Amino acid sequence: MSLGRELGGESKVEAMIKKQGVSLILKSIDIVFDREVTFPDTVLVGYRPQQPSLEDKDPAAFKVTASAYSFAQKAIVATSNEALAWIPTVLNLRIVIG
Q1: Closest residue by Cα to residue 63 from 73, 55, 71, 74
Q2: Choosing a second label site near 65 at 20 to 30 A (CA), which of 3, 24, 83, 96?
């Protein structure tokens, strides 16, 4: 919820949690799994926003990269490139796939 805090403080965080105002949805994801992770392990996932490029045509979306670090292996086990989109949130909205 740090993104909500940075955008508008605690009131923005509360609004995102209560599905009010605007929130984020995963638009696309590309994951590369470099190593197998098995139980027991702890994985830390870190995100970094990417600079917008001239090829980005959707003003409601932004891109991030992520790395997953395994404490047991002491190594990066997966990386990803993702596009997130801002959407208006509606109470009781349900998305059914399939």
Answers
A1: 55
A2: 96
